[in-house]
Amino acid sequence: MKSILLYDTTLRDGTQGEQIAFTAADKLKIAQNLDDLGIHYIEGGWPGSNVKDREFFEAAKNVHFKNSKMAAFGATHKHGIKAEDDPNLKAIVVCGAPVGTIFGKTWDLHVEKILRIRLEDNLAMIRESVEYLKKNGLEVHYDAEHFFDGYKENRSYALQTLAAAIDGGADFIGLCDTNGGSLPHDVSAAVQEVIAHFSHAENTNTDSPPVRFGIHTHNDCGLAVANTIAAVQAGAALVQGTINGYGERCGNADLTSIIPILKIKMGYPCISDENLTKLRKVSLFVSETANMTPLHARPFVGKSAFAHKGGIHVHAITRVSRSYEHMDPLLVGNRQRVLVSDMSGKSNIDYKIKELGLSLETDGVDATEIVSQIKQLEKEGYQFDDADGTFQIMVEKLTNQFQPLFELDSFRVIIEKNKDQACHSHAIIKISVNGEVQDITVAEGHGPVSALDNALRKALNKVYPKALDPVHLVDFKVRVLDGRDGTGAKVRVLLESRDTSSIWSTIGVSEDIIEASWQALADSFQHKLSRLEKEQPFKK
User: Residue 261 is part of which domain span?
Assistant: First the structure.
């Protein structure tokens, strides 16, 4: 079976997504992770468009990429300017990338109504731009912008634009669903027809056309991945996409779904088995660098992708995993998870106890008792199906296996508000470690919970240096459980925390929002420190 080439445009198209921005240093780190994953092409940005992208390409010259080719992006030369005089094209040539990717107009609507030039002039711009890059020794990818819309409305002209790129010497042509409005059967039919047309036009005796075709889709109908797969089935040899589907409007085709579908479901050798296991880690790294909350329900790599809550499901997967899982999560670096709640049965608890490495036999507590305790706590407002960190601590306490890495002696939070100034918060905290009371620690913050967080980190850093440096807050949710008591109502605080490789959640419940926040915060740090203690015990 033919190999499918992977082309990542997270660093260019992905940054066009709302609230996403990368520094040049961020982009270099992401590129190195993509290279380690085994991506064939990495589109680094538009050197002719902004200084940051030029800085990135300059820095990339000093990095050895073992798997990936760097691609610089741009457009065909402007109307009225020769290709060799166009600053955008010259920037691609001098940036040092071995691949130049340029886009041009395929839809006659854009040529006549947006550019307001003659159709034949657009064809010349495409051909001359590709020729210029080829003459300068670059591998050239031509992205046929709005191809599927143009092909639908004026098939003849759309094919002429592709022919112009081929005449210029393009190595790859990317068929772009720029507006994201195409359907899989339309994409499949168009790709088949295009490949057949150019195979026949060149009068080749092989099954492959002289130029290879790729696919670039957007997700405006929620079909970017499906359209990409349809194009591959129709003969596309290269797929473009972004990690986590980041991109303009509704995003681009998500490579974290496309890669395992191609590799595992369809058998295309697009990536090695070893590199495939890095997929979740890369997904988390990119979301962290983008400062975007990871989507739990993201297929394959999301936290919930292989999570099970119903007792019947859990009972089944303990016997045969594939009874309720479409694949082995370890293949993409993910893991099977079992959730616990008041819906849980004995199977859920038995699974979680085994997963946590705890023992019930020697502590006089059985799974039935733990289920009963969970149901009682959930009546009080706790919710354990998305609070694994607090659940582990609760079970360890019930079974007398909890070994706290710190204990609270006292804290005080002071909030000061002056007439013409914003609120100012600071926290004073005293903790004990191994029975020894630590010095009082004081810290400021943007609000009372932030001040508590900073004070606790500062206090723990004296005992466990740098252990909590990678930990930061991903999400902070507060819910009023019963509004009839007004401002005195009980609240539930859910904290989601992460480090460089994992995400965990903790919970607190109280009539006092600061107390509830403290419970969740303390559990989060206990959970992280206990993991580190198991990996390599701290010096006492």
Answer: 5-271
